Amino acid sequence: MITIKELPDENLFTAGHTACPGCGVAMSIRNAIRVLGKDTSVYVPASCAVVFGTTFPYGAWKVPFFHTAFENTGACLTGMQAAFEKKGKKVTSVGFAGDGGTYDIGLQSMSGAAERNDDVIYICLDNEAYMNTGIQRSGGTPFGAWTTTTPVGAKVQGNRRFKKNLGEIVAAHEIPYYATLSIGHPLDFIRKVEKAKNIKGFRFLHMFTPCIPGWKMDPAKTVEVTKRAVESGMWTLYEVENGEKKITFKPGKMKSVRDYLMMQGRFRHMSDEDIKKLQMWVCKKWNLHYKEKGAPEVCEIAPPEEHHAVTEEHREMHGP
Amino acid sequence: MFEVRFHGRGGQGAVMAAQTLAEAAVIEGNYAVAFPFFGAERRGAPVLAFTRIDSKKIYSKTQIYSPDCVVVLDDSLLDTIDVVAGLKPGGSVVINSRDKPEDIDLGISVKTAVVDATSVALEILKAPITNTAILGAFARATGIIKLESLEEAIKRRFGEKLGEKIAERNSLAARTAYGKTVIGTSKGIKKLEPKKQWLPTYQELPAGGSLIEGKTDAGLIGPGSFIENKVSGWATFRPLRDREKCTMCLLCWFYCPEGTIVRISDRGDLMTNYDYCKGCGVCANECPVDAIKMVRARV
To answer: Which string of DSSP letters, residue by residue, matches chain A?
Structure first.
């Protein structure tokens, strides 16, 4: 297991890139590539990472870098890896796609690569909306969040759908390794990237990366907000290795989701009723992940017992 | 017609300033348009916004190339951008700076109004968003709009989007800056050379746009060439590390999104390279022993 002290000094993602101050994506990229090392080849689809990391003819990457279209991260990785294998080179092919490029637009391509179990690492940088194009809702946007396509109005406030459970979708491909990561938990982060590097087959790393302008928050709080997300249950750190799910970080007592929400401008409009709804969703997730901990006190409403029964509540949450 | 060009950085509110100025002109019975320059804007990156004011209907839709007044929301832009490009004879410049107008070198000698809008904004708004403060200075320097109509426009614009309280504070920021504005004449010594660009011929252009590390007349290109892009101008604050308190836990080095904090393992030490610091403050916020303090950059 590597610790922070054992990481190499060299920066493979150089300074001078043009990300916003406090960018969670830049942090995640820098540290992921630190662990993956020099023998890595990177693919990035349309996203912030391609705009701030490479502006032709300049680039921040010190490893081979490739960029084409939005929807083909999985396919490109497959092609890159096939070429390296044919040439007899030992290179790790890594794709850094955003949540839009994974949850929505790149889903088919990612699914294809996972199905073929190609020997690549797919990294999803999840900042919970299409931030590069100016904050539009994606499949990864949580309930209640403001985006430009889920505005706050008199009748409807923010996103009405819940965050898509991408982890289950990816794990259902029966790939060798799926893990969720957060930059606020460095040891867990390093261990998972290192582990993924040494496994053969399709590996998926799901990184939680705060976006300062999109989440409307103080740039200094980037790391703090990821810690708060894990403590409240909005984000869970776990890994699925060959179908076996393991929680890798257990937070102490569950914190109210309100603490997490109020750090960010995108949630500040939320009504008590909406927060309760989101808290219920989080409680369900929490109970699922940390079974032995039992229902925490902050869960005012017990989660519905019959999972498939269509109640009034369900209809309101998920549509008819 | 009176044309204004705003030079700012993403997040300082240059676009909002342009819109508010247009609204103030409309309140006074004029016609006005305001629009930003569209590019890949990111927080801290240089941005442009424009306002046109006229007593007649305005049909011109182009960007403003020869403004009557240039408003600069951040004086660090003066080092890299020729803000006075195309300024009409007899035009004026409004700058957010701590210097006196006589100490500012714009390349031409021109009427210059100066206000320390960052300090005003930090004091009143508790954030380095300088747009309303600089508008106060604009009203004082040009006299194109009255302070009262500007305050009314701020109340309307900001009140609608951010609530009355914030509008009230922004209006106070404009009034304070109006009072603190110093008007003088700038120096005209330096020659700003436009940044050289790499312009290869079609024979020189690599197939498929693929680049290897290279050096051109315009500087480095290819992998790792962003290292020549100094971004210190983005920062309002910068970190100061107390070596006595530091326990070398390396968390700041790990978290720094810029790579500003450099580790030298041989010496077992950390260095901060301020050329790349954007002043986000993550290091200070996460330091477990409070060894890092954020202080004002460019004092």
So the answer is: ---GGGS-S--SB-TT--PPTT-HHHHHHHHHHHHH-SSEEEE--SSHHHHHHEETTEESBSS-EE---SS-HHHHHHHHHHHHHHTT---EEEEEEESIIIIITTHHHHHHHHHHT-S-EEEEEE-SSBTTTT-B--TTPPTT--BTTB-B-SS-BS--SPPP-HHHHHHTT--SEEEEEETT-HHHHHHHHHHHHTS-S-EEEEEE---HHHHT--GGGHHHHHHHHHHHTSS--EEEETTEEEE----SSPPPHHHHHTTSTTTTT--HHHHHHHHHHHHHHHHHH-GGG-S-TT--SPPPSSSS---HHHHHHH--
A202 Cα to chain B: minimum distance (Å): 27
| DSSP 8-state symbol, B294 | E
The pTM (predicted TM-score) of the whole model is 0.88
What pLDDT shows up at residue A307?
47
Q: Which CATH number fits domain A4-281: 2.40.50.140, 3.40.640.10, 3.40.50.300, 3.40.50.970?
A: 3.40.50.970
Choice between A294 and B114, residue whose per-residue pLDDT is larger: B114
Quote the pLDDT of residue B135: 95
pLDDT in tens, A226-280: 999 999 999 999 999 999 999 999 888 888 899 999 999 999 999 999 999 999 9
Domain with CATH 3.40.920.10 in chain B: 2-185
Inter-chain CB pairs, A–B, below 8 Å: 138
Note whether A19 contacts B253, CB cutoff 8 Å.
Answer: no
What single-letter amino acid sits at B175? R
Percent of chain B with pLDDT over 70: 99
Phi/psi region, residue A242 (left: phi>0; alpha: psi -120 to 50; beta: rest), is: left
Chain B environment of A13 (Cβ under 8 Å):
259
Inform me whether the C-beta atom of residue B268 falls under 8 Å from chain A C-beta atoms.
no
pLDDT, tens only, B165-214: 999 999 999 999 999 999 999 988 887 777 788 888 888 888 877 888 88
| CB < 8 Å to A224, chain B | 285-286
Residue B126 host element (H or E): none
What percent of chain A stands above pLDDT 70? 91
Band of residue A86 on the pLDDT scale cut at 50, 70, 90 = very high
Tokens of B129: 């968003």
Mean pLDDT of chain A: 90
User: Hey, of B266, B267, B280, which one would you mutate to test binding to chain A, going by the most A CBs within 10 A of its CB?
Assistant: B280
pLDDT in the model for residue A301: 52
Q: Which of B221, B258, B294 sits opposite A15 (nearest CB)?
A: B258
Q: How would you class A160 by CB atoms within 10 Å of its CB: exposed for 0-12, middle for 13-18, buried for 19 or more?
A: middle
Contact at 8 Å (CB) between A81 and A39? no
Give chain A positions within 8 Å (CB) of B235: 21
Task: Give contacts of A212 with chain B, Cβ < 8 Å.
Answer: 43, 280
Percent residues over pLDDT 90 in chain B: 69
Q: In the CATH hierarchy, which fold is given to the domain comprising B2-185?
A: Pyruvate-ferredoxin Oxidoreductase; domain 3 (3.40.920)
Residue extent(s) of CATH 3.30.70.20 domains in chain B: 230-296
Quick check: A294 pLDDT over 70? no
> What CATH fold (topology level) applies to the domain B230-296?
Alpha-Beta Plaits (3.30.70)
